[in-house]
Design brief:
It is a single chain. The chain has 14 helices and twelve strands. The strands form three sheets. The protein has a seven-stranded mixed beta sheet with strand order 2-8-7-6-5-3-4, with helices on both faces. Strands 9-12-11 form a three-stranded antiparallel beta sheet. A two-stranded parallel ribbon has the order 1-10. The mean pLDDT is about 95. With about 400 residues, it is an alpha/beta fold.
Amino acid sequence: MAVAEKISKMMASSSWIRRMFDAGAELKARFGADEVCDFSLGNPNLDPPPEFNEALRRLAAASMPAKHGYMPNAGLAEVRKAVADFVSREQQCPLEADHVVMTCGAGGALNVALKTILDPGEEVLAVTPCFMEYRFYAENHGGALRLVPTREDFDLDVSAIEGAVGEKTAALIINTPNNPSGVVYPEATLRALGAMLEAKSRETGRTIYLLSDEPYRKIVFDAVEVPSILAAYRNSLIASSYSKDLSIPGERIGFLAVHPEADDAENMAAGMILANRILGFVNAPALMQRVVAELQGVHVDVGLYQKKRDRLCAGLGEIGYELRRPQGTFYLFPKSPTADDMEIVEALREERILTVPGRGFSCPGYFRIAFCVADEVIERSFQGFRRAFEKVAKA
């Protein structure tokens, strides 16, 4: 066999998001892009903020020593300091540059973290609905992913997580604001989670790390605040990126930060640096590091995403779809009109509307709509959403 058996199995169960995105490409080729409403991929449609373009032009033209040369694997010292200073304020926890590693996006950060934490055969917990490539990330490093459902309102079920913790549990991944539900986990829930993980770490005799995946932290609505993970639990790490808040997903720039009071924090940081190198990332892109160092706290106009959310929620609610208004991200996660989420996804595809089934997030019975699209796409989708709803509901 030319392809490894493990990769063959991964390809067979690969992302529903990409499957629907590919289906959208086929529809666009057949009918034209203007005839397809593609809500499949969370690819930001807003332009980067003006500050990004100005910093990029200036830094690209600047003359400086070793501008494109090798650097420390953790990233440029001044960039790590800028990130640490901002995260310290944002997370209400004092970090130094040594607690930060610049990475190739949040995906790179998650892989660096798991490479550092996991021994073969250990388990990583994740709460559903979630980004299912977490499973591949865990398996990349000899681990196994175990899924734990959330509550009906998509808040964390701390008791269910506690019941899933075992002697092989090395880490728990959470994602807040959550893709696909749009839920921001409340501070009280996070503090209860932290207390439980402290107790279970003592009980099992090993540190259980909390890995928070936070690329949507700044994409929140209605003055919602995202509580601090670092304030809730000391054995925690943050994986984040600038893909969503600066609308630069193709630049693959992010960071991984470890709580300064985590068990063996110094060795943890050293392990992250080593993992960044031996995974082949070596270091995050030099130019993008310098750009984002100047843009801490800068983000796109989130109000534009909020308007899209409000328009879709109103329109779909009038049709009869059952949904919760997301607190953050640029996703809606409505309930399917029938128990089989593929029925509504297929009915929508017949209307040239691309969405992603909830089973793609280990949450069947729902489907995801990525509303980071042009307003005209939203407006021309409603008739198709209505016809699909009526077709499936009457079946």
